[in-house]
Amino acid sequence: MIPKGTKLLCLVLCLGQRIQAQDRNFSIPTISAVPGSVVPWNETVKILCKGAPESYLYHLKILRNSKYQQVNEILGYQKEAAVFTIHPMDANSAGNYRCQYRSYKGWSEHSDALDLVVTGFYDKPFLSADQDHRVAPGENFSLRCSSASIPFDRFSLTKDGGVDLPQQQNGGHQGSFTLGPVNYNFSGNYRCYGWYNASPHVWSSPSNTLELVVTDTMNQDYTMENLIRMIVAGLVLVALLAILAEDWHSRRVLHKEGRQDLAETSCSKQKCQTEWTLQPAPNGHL
């Protein structure tokens, strides 16, 4: 039987170890790029690493030769986030990034990976679609990214706003993409790029912009049909009112003319009677 004092000591030690383990728990940092992770050559991009309020040191690392190497650090006591500025953007700055922060607890885990891409190193491809650019929710939408001048190992499709999109694995002069089933969030401007397996973070110039509009065309057509019917009905009603007004006006004019003719006829008869009454009798009858 274990003495009560030993039990109490064990309980205190176990509780202390649990508190210490909880105290060493770190929030995993998050990494992002502003204005985005696809950056034109010679432009500026900012990498944000968000850690914890008690952090005082941030490291930014890039993957080189299968190992992450530190490229920059920011020191600042109780700095919840660090901003790393890259300018100008070039092929050496492109790559796979992670960040890490340090606090009084020690070093945190690494963040998730951020793929920073530089564009503008090859001729731009052409983005097209066989179907109408207006599609209904729930349908699929297919696009083609083609390069007539040079073949690429792979093609990538991007959308304004940084939405994750499928990546074409096949290369050559053309790559195909299928979006769907689409919803209203798929509406926007799309571009595509070509690149090579040896330099996956160095892309071509952006293609032309293709706008996709996701809309409920059936409801719109139904609404338009109803609108057309209402307009036609309104025009018919206006025409009927015009006909009735014209008929009423014609009847009124005819009635007025009839009364005038009647009045003139009565006046003529009275005048004739008066003249006949006032006419002098012949001398032989006086």
Automatic annotation (TrEMBL):
The entry's keywords: Disulfide bond, Immunoglobulin domain, Membrane, Signal, Transmembrane, Transmembrane helix
Signal peptide: 1-21
Transmembrane segments: 227-245
Taxonomy, superkingdom: Eukaryota
GO biological process: immune response-regulating signaling pathway
Domain Immunoglobulin: 34-119, 130-215
Keyword Metal-binding: no
Matches recorded under Gene3D superfamilies: Immunoglobulins
Statement: the UniProt record of this protein carries the keyword Membrane: yes
Pfam family, one: ig
InterPro entries: Ig-like_dom_sf, Ig-like_fold, Ig-like_Receptors_ImmuneReg, Ig_sub, Immunoglobulin_dom
Chain segments annotated as coiled-coil in the UniProt record: none
GO cellular component terms, A-Z: plasma membrane
Protein name: Fc alpha receptor
Source organism (scientific name): Loxodonta africana
Lineage of the species this protein comes from: Eukaryota, Metazoa, Chordata, Craniata, Vertebrata
